[in-house]
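Expect chain and fold; thus:
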Amino acid sequence: MEEKTDLVEEIPMLPKQTSESPEPAPESKTKYYIIGGIVILVVLALVVLATIFLAKPANSQTTEQIRDIVIIFMALVSLVIGVALVILIIQLSTLINLLQNEIRPIINSTSETVNTLKGTAQFVSENLSEPVIKINQLMAMIKQLFSLRKR
């Protein structure tokens, strides 16, 4: 028979892992912090400028309109928050009902099963294992006794 040494297959190499991690590098994190800080400063400056502009007596009509719009917006937000709280309370009551009526019986059943297994193990230990161990002990003693007499 001919030996075929040319059939050795090359093991495919896994692609090299790059040192890039999914988290951004510390330089890019500081870049994001700087951009975030600039955005916060710009928004704060706009709020201050809008407040100064709206505080002038000449702009009282615009201020009243913006006030009315904000009041309507806050009422809508309060309504949405109220609906969310009602849904949360309903979900919480459903969870409590589940825990009391379904989980507690399962835990009680499991506890009874464990107690039954504990009793079964104790029964088997007392009525099966101990007699077998005692018989083996007696047989070992007899075997040792006969081996001492032969010497």
Residues 28-150 form one domain. DSSP finds two helices and no strands in the chain. The first helix runs from residue 26 to 55. The CA atoms of residues 6 and 12 lie 17 Å apart.
